[in-house]
Amino acid sequence: MTKKSLLRRAGVVAASLTASVLMSAQAAEPIKIGSFLSVTGPASFLGDPELKTLEMYVEKINEEGGVLGRQLELIHYDDVGNASNARNFAGRLIRSDQVDIIVGGSTTGATMAAAPLVQQAGMPFISLAGAVTIVSPVQEWVFKTPQSDRMAAERILWDMERRGFDKIGLISGTGGFGASGRKQTLEVAGEYGIEVVADETYGPSDSDMTAQLTNISNADGVDAVLNFGFGQGPAIVTKNYAALDIDLPFYQSHGVASDAFLDLAGDAAEGLRLPASPLLVPAALPDDDPQKAVVQGYKEAYEERWDSRVSTFGGYAYDGLMLAVQAIEAAGSTDKAAVRDELEDISGYVGVTGIYNMAPDDHNGLAPESFRILEVKDGDWMLVD
Hints:
This is ABC transporter substrate-binding protein. This protein is an alpha/beta fold.
């Protein structure tokens, strides 16, 4: 072999070794999961269980070997429920942290503030917030795990219709969630033959809604009352409702679907109904329900790890992370466009919240029937339907 041939072969070997080292280094790099959540502040009842869920399942996945042979790294920020903070943190995750996907956004306001940035950057983003405006109209890079407020309104109105109610009173918070829920309820009520004959609102700092509830109870022909809101407001409304001794069926939205709400509302919550994921009543699910094993597994793992009761909001984070992992595995890489395409193609994924079937025109993938109707009985949740 000539000297020139030896040199050429040595160059090829060196190049191969260099490529191998680079590939090994890349394979060893963690897959970065970015998140901004309302861990503290007025929406902490959302963000706290969401962060705990992400932390425990990132650890679990890593202990089991990671994803595509790589470990997951969770990079998260607390936006304190502030939309401006959320936008800033989303920008940091994209530009500075260079994450591969974002799973977060506890509130609609935080999500919508971040959405333009992820759209511009081409960053797959799975929101944990509820408003239908997050995915309608569809934004190319934005997905979400909770059922929409429109679905909640549809499920509540469906239950009202089957109980024979045709005139209702509506009270709602003026924040993003309550305002959107009010809008959706007003838009779809007629489809169920229901007329909203009283329409009242309350602000985020209001501490007594007696006047609004009195107006509703005095409205002509009211059959039932619905409150759309989250945070402290719905608990105050519930207590005021009981104090006024209003003898009408009472509904809340999925915004209060947690045991923490029962603690806040106490005996005043007795008899109210709401739409929720089956996470609050796993033992009541029939054995052939495809969600039963998933729901029970998540509930047991969360409560054992954190020594606190599970909430549906943590379930949104579980589904968000698992959908992200499934899409990355299906893509075979963290290529953002490929991961986005795989998210949009997810079909039949059985989650805590429901069974997801994404599509180009549906970046939520859930049906209204994924909500179960629950009623408070003897201070606990009871499955109605």
